[in-house]
Amino acid sequence: KQEVTQIPAALSVPEGENLVLNCSFTDSAIYNLQWFRQDPGKGLTSLLLIQSSQREQTSGRLNASLDKSSGRSTLYIAASQPGDSATYLCAVPGGGADGLTFGKGTHLIIQP
Amino acid sequence: NAGVMQNPRHLVRRRGQEARLRCSPMKGHSHVYWYRQLPEEGLKFMVYLQKENIIDESGMPKERFSAEFPKEGPSILRIQQVVRGDSAAYFCASSTTAAYEQYFGPGTRLTVT
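Above: the input entities. Below: the structure tokens describing the complete assembly.
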């Protein structure tokens, strides 16, 4: 059974700092990994999808890496802004035939 | 290209009533997934459907819950005889293929009184 753990559960940093969010998963037989953002009371916004054959994926100030063999992914946010405040979720296939298994998320607060 | 659409956005039902949640996938997407987010808990997979077929319902409670994705029209998640423990946010996602990126709708927040 796939399990996903995200560390830290919560993080508060001053604006402008670079930060790293961590995600680990127990079953390395995945074909992709997705990072999402969820704002309070809202749906999920897909940030990055990394295929199992890739090691990194970048979008603007976001960079996600994947080490499939060790069951780890990181999301790097450069030059953080107050608008980055949200809950960040990591998800991998394994929640069903093709359903996603989610971590509980990292609640991020960027202080102005 | 409109994103995944869900309605209603908020739904209030009394215990024992039925709840019907609708999801229209993104244009060109034929794979639909339903997830539930209970208060203070993570998102949990419920069911995966393609047009007219349930592919995997391993995450769906055996009783009172059902899902369909007809040839025409939206996917429907139906909860019969709702109980307070069904209060949650229900999210729908869609994708072009089974192994590709999933796009989520805004969710339906169900409150059972």
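Note for the figure: The longest strand of chain A covers residues 44-51.
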